[in-house]
Design a protein that fits this description.
Shape: elongated
InterPro entries: DUF7553
Strand content: under 5%
Structural class: mainly alpha
Helix content: over 70%
Pfam families: DUF7553
Low-confidence stretches: none
Protein name: DUF4404 family protein
Order of helices and strands: HHHH
Mean pLDDT: 86
Oligomer: single chain
Region (Disordered): 1-25, 66-95
Number of helices: 4
Length: 95
């Protein structure tokens, strides 16, 4: 399961890299990437899983950014959303 957050972050970074035309979207994607890093292992202990409400908030923000973006950027955000959904489902079944 630890690999999935890495893949989510990679998609967010790709989306940020392709969001050349929209600086606001690019900056928000970078912020979400940093937030995800903190949620899944940055300053937190390995034993403390991310809170569901924080993951839901991240999903909501990704959906909003996807709606505001186009093309390749939107595709990367969609991939990140899918991976995040899989991560949440896996966590729920592991609990």
């Amino acid at each position: 399961m630890a690999d999935r957050p890495t893949r989510i972050r990679e998609e967010l970074q790709r989306a940020s890299d392709t969001a050349n035309e929209d600086r606001d979207v690019r900056e928000q994607l970078r912020s979400l990437d940093e937030g995800l890093m903190e949620l899944v292992g940055g300053d937190k202990t390995e034993d403390e899983p991310p809170h569901e409400d924080r993951l839901a908030e991240l999903e909501e923000k990704l959906a909003g950014l996807r709606d505001r973006s186009e093309g390749e950027t939107s595709g990367h955000i969609r991939n990140a959303e899918r991976l995040l959904g899989e991560y949440r489902e896996r966590r729920e079944t592991d609990e």
